[in-house]
Amino acid sequence: MTTPSLATALRRGVLRKCPRCGAGALFAGYLKRVETCPHCGESFEGVDADDGPAWLTIGLVAHIIVPLLIFFESRELLSYPAEMAVLLGVTIVASLALLPLCKGFFLAAVWAIAARKTS
Hints:
The chain has one domain (6-118). The chain contains three helices and no strands. The protein is mainly alpha-helical. Helix 1 crosses helix 3 and helix 2 runs antiparallel to helix 3. The chain has helices at residues 6-14, 52-75, 80-118.
């Protein structure tokens, strides 16, 4: 099997699939990475994302929350406690939804860089 392009590997990672074949799952749970792809057998040993997914998630969530906060403040639609409740809820949901996608992206990036070094 050939090594896919960087864009293909990253897209597969965001979809939480094996960056090599795109068929096997990259995670065994919410954030637990599999050791090998169940479809193609590609090993992910030593492929770690470290703190990158958390930083990317924080940046993406901030780009959602800050415009929402500016919208609420400029329109004065809600009271401060209601605003806080909405923003807190959106922050939690967005963080939980984006974190696995960001981790898949980073794992695919690290895998693709390592695959190009060995080729």
